Amino acid sequence: MDKWLSHPTALKIISVILGVILFAIVHVDPVTSPQTATSNIDTKVIEAVTIVPTGLDTTKYVMTAMEPTVARLVVEGRISTLRTAANEQYIVNVDLEGVEPGIHELPLTSKLPRNIKEVELSPRKVNVRIEELVTKSFDVQVLTSGQPADGYVLGTPAVLSEGGSMVQVTLPKDDMTRVGLVAVTLDVTGADKTVVNKKAKVVVYDNDGVEIPEAAVSPGTVHAEAKVTLPFKAVPLQVRYSGVLDSELSLVSVKPNISEITVYAQQAQLDAISIYDGVVLDLSKVKGSGPIAVKTLPVDGISSVNPGEVTLDVVVERTATRTINNLPVAISGEGEGLKAELREPESGTMSLQLRGAEAVLKDVQASDISLLAKVDGLPPGIHTVPLELDLPPYVEPVIAEGQPLTVRIEILDDSAPVNGDGDDLEQGGAPTDTPVTGTPEEEPDENDGQDAGGSGNSGGSGNAAGNQNASIRTSRSLIASADGL
To answer: I want to staple 278 with a disulfide (CB 3.0 to 4.6 A). Which of 6, 192, 256, 299 is the partner?
Structure first.
């Protein structure tokens, strides 16, 4: 050992080692040495972390204000961890569980990524305002924007949802008084047909017409429509008839389930329409009393009709007959300076047999029947003039085959002398070989009605012969033949 220590090389090595040790003792600072050992730890500052409220019973309350809404957060952790953690992972909460309505100062808590700890949180508390929620029902209105196409009109918009037009609006109690309107809006610009939106968004507006976006609406959409149609108006409904009723039956009444109908047409055509007579009852299909559904058809320039179907309450009875005596014959249409006098029948009255339902016939009075002879344009002389009959509804005359319903009238010229009897000469007309005279008064007889079946119920052969010489009118449409009235 002594020999090794005395060796020059060994002494040099020992001297170097001792020098290094002494240098380290002199130059290493014991205070800073720990920092060198932990240099991978760092801090991070997040200036604006959004404060998130938690725990609030949102079915009863709502937070309407919070001050401040962000916080400053300083954290510490390994550099690698700080770099990999996104800012969204740093969360600051305010716990609102059990908090009652009012203004409260509450503490903040932080939720940080793993292996990162909070160094500083500023502020430590926030002020929040909690309000009670209330729910109220509102009727949804349908608003429109724009104008439909030229010649079209906008009808009344409506909500068609199965649940109706009511919705539930939820707002803070103090804000509920601000609600002025709950509505959906449909754009009808240039529309020539009905505009429909099955998912129209419901919007809540305040009293100034400004949307309240925080309002919660249930349901949030509704099925709405705005009708766009041609101009329209409601007019009285008049029933027409076609076909032939069974000879053993007569009408007592025909009553539609509505008295007016809405018609749609261009304005020029619409202005000329005063009634709607597009409901036609086919009498050949009437076999007894009861309701009959009849389609409403577009007629006389009408584009469409609403409703599309009308129900007629039809009442029929067995046919009967009745004779009305002493019916006066009226004359109209004498020219200037001329005078018309009735020659046959001399009495100036006639008898007329009627057929119809017994319930109708029993109420017919002589004053309900008009016999009119029109002499317009006839020159002086004796003329055979057909009569025009005006009869009550659902009544028709019984006219034997070959029997004319006419009268003989003499037209006199008041300004010229009368030569001779005048009865032996007829001017401008042919004499009537078979004058029409009254027949004895007959009581209503069911058999008479059946016997008259040969003359036909409105459109039969007997009536056809009589109508060659007479014009028959009623205050309503008569029981009509197939060619209508």
So the answer is: 299
User: Both tokens of residue 240?
Assistant: 């027409």
- Domains of the chain, earliest start first: 40-132 (2.170.120.30), 140-229 (2.170.120), 233-317 (2.170.120.40), 319-474 (2.170.120.30)
Rounded distance between C-alpha atoms, residue 228 and residue 243, angstroms: 38
Residue 414 pLDDT class (50, 70, 90 cuts): confident
Would you state the structure tokens that stand for residue 34, as one six-digit string? 């720990």
pLDDT in the model for residue 72: 94
CA–CA distance, 293 with 277 (Å, rounded to integer): 15
Q: What are the two backbone dihedrals, phi and then psi, of residue 144, each rounded to the nearest 5 degrees?
A: -125, 150
Cα-atom radius of gyration of the chain, to the nearest Å? 52
**8 Å CB contact between 465 and 422:** no
Bridge partners (DSSP) of residue 78 are 41
∠ CA 44-47-49, nearest 5°, is 100
- Minimum mean pLDDT among 50-59, 149-158, 393-402: which range? 393-402
pLDDT band at 164 (very low <50, low <70, confident <90, very high): very high
Which residue's structure tokens are 């016939």? 361
The pTM is what?
Answer: 0.49
- If you search the block for the tokens 């129900």, which residue do you land on? 311
In sequence order, what are the residues at sequence separation of 6 or more whose Cβ sits closer than 8 angstroms to the Cβ of residue 420?
Answer: none
